[in-house]
Amino acid sequence: xxxxxxxxxxxxxxxxxxxxxxxxxxxxxxxxxxxxxxxxxxxxxxxxxxxxxxxxxxxxxxxxxxxxxxxxxxxxxxxxxxxxxxxxxxxxxxxxxxxxxxxxxxxxxxxxxxxxxxxxxxxxxxxxxxxxxxxxxxxxxxxxxxxxxxxxxxxxxxxxxx
Length: 162
Fold this sequence. Notes:
Blueprint: E1 8-9, E2 18-19, E3 23-24, E4 31-32, H1 67-76, E5 107-108, E6 115-116, H2 129-133, H3 139-161
Antiparallel strand pairs: 1-2, 3-4, 5-6
């Protein structure tokens, strides 16, 4: 004999079991039987950070951690932020060119190995000293390299044809 006025049916369509002590999901508001006590849409839950009653600042707390324990730990630290949760600055790289204050994704110069913003990333844009000190290949040196390459290709071609 069922008591339709007592309890309610499980919100899960495949179950629909009558439960006298249904569990209400705080994420979606649906009621589930004790065997399906977990909601299928936990991402719908509105999550609010707990606020410290002493300093009135929000206390960072992971979703699966009890908020009361996080506030208690915050108070035990003297209302100081958790040192394990301190984040690194988003833009830690700064342009190495004097006078430029841009903090963005930086490129490393292949010549001088310094970091520069996108505007100053090319060696000619930041007056790179390393590029000016590089030996400039003369026409004579280039011709001798081409001649050596031509000779080695000729020797390889003669060795493979016979």
